[in-house]
User: Fold this.
Amino acid sequence: MLIIHHWDTDGIISSALTVKALNLEDFINITPPIGEFRFDDRIKKYIEKSEKIYVLDLNLPQEVEDIKKETIFIDHHIQKKIKNPYVKQINPILEGYSEKDYPSASFVVSEYFSYWDYLSAIGAVGDIGERAFDIPKVLKLLEMENLGKEEALRLVQLIDSNYIVMERYDVENAVKVVLNLEPGELLEYEKWNKNLEKINEAIENAISNIKVRDRIAFIEFKSKFNIISKVARKLVWEMGYDGAIVLNRDFHGKAQVYFRISSNLVDKIKMNELIQTLKNRNFNAGGKKEVLGCILEKDNVNEVLNVINEYLR
Assistant:
């Protein structure tokens, strides 16, 4: 059994829920190169060796079109329908359901397997932050483990720390850590807490220079840590900007652009149109209705920013 999952909390949690729901003892879980929306050669080699494949919380329907093995594709992003008959695509959004009812892949996984526990809630908190606490089911699931809101948010920060410090192996190992430790033990997990100290320092450095226009913040920095989404979330969710365009000009030899908007702008800015425009120009872009992420060559930064600025105008 092969599980291919996103590198963030929701992807890791969705994998752990799948393992628990199926009572798997023999499985391999892997993630794409952190920050890149593609299957690399390592993933493709594992696909060749596997009998059955799960793809979780990865908005990459194009990557499974040529797989000739039983594949279960579970997601909650806006995406195209998969034509490959070997692939079973589980995505309530494609059936017309609201994203409010399926805030995370963990919710889709839990419903699909009829298996719910506190992890289902942690996945939702990982994807939509404090808004998850407006969902009664999230609060009920957290209460089952006596977890408060602050503890849930802290747990997300700790799990996410693995991808933010760019440790692909640690992201994959996090699935086993989550499966083997109780919530209280996860909150005290030493390695993750040390990661978080370094990350928080890098984020504070990044937000020290903000430019604002029409309530949209723009920040530019250089960091080896994958903090770009965290910086954008802090600007929109905590600091109250309507949107945030964040640029990391030197991320392991490449550049990153990340655009997040608040719920106030979701109806005005069609993020899927922006994402498709960038894809049409052969950029490695992905996201959902409030988020756009793109990793690219440094020389192409201005082109991507121009596409975003033209759309906003």
In short: The mean pLDDT is 95. Residues 70 and 86 are 5 Å apart (CA to CA).
